[in-house]
Amino acid sequence: MSHFKFIKDLIKNSLYCSISTITKDGLPHSSPIGSVYVENEKQGYFIEMFTKGFVNQSGNKACILAVNTSLLFWLKSLIFGQFKTPPGVRLLVTLGDRREISDIERNRFHKRVRPFRKLKGHKLMWSNANYVRPFSIDKVIPVSIGKMTKHLES
């Protein structure tokens, strides 16, 4: 499986990702991001809604962490004592400038959250998807969990 397909599937099947940056005060800041999309091996974007810390960030470097949140994946791995694939990945990225969301990106996002459209929280959380933040992927670092991922390390 290619890195791109693995990363794309991992992000697609994660409940959320987190993105970490450094503030202008030199402090770490992490935000949950439920809408990360990778378009190819070198670039992607995320819907920027709950990322107030980005206003005060220092520089344009960030780390996006995606973890497989499937209970079945974790249960199988614990039973067999090893992971078949890395349980997560860190994407070291360079952030682009925030821009307005395109119609294609908005439709992709609405398709993702559509199953929840009749719930009260749907409108409260996802009605303001107006901006995206593009990023370029500088480095991919699989999450290592000791002996359970040792066989995956090269």
Share in β-strands: 25-35%
Fraction of residues in helix: 10-25%
Q: In the CATH classification, which architecture applies?
A: Roll
Query: What string, H for helix and E for strand, traces the elements in order?
Result: HEEEEEHEEHHE
Largest sheet: 8 strands, antiparallel
- Low-confidence blocks of residues: none
What is the class in the CATH system?
A: Mainly Beta
Quickly count the helices.
4
- Mean pLDDT equals 87
Beta strands, count: 8
Distance between the termini: 15 Å
CATH T-level fold name: Pnp Oxidase, Chain A
Q: Domains counted in the coordinates: how many?
A: 1
Radius of gyration: 16 Å
Structural class: alpha+beta
Question: What do we call the CATH homologous superfamily?
Answer: Electron Transport, Fmn-binding Protein, Chain A
Shape: globular
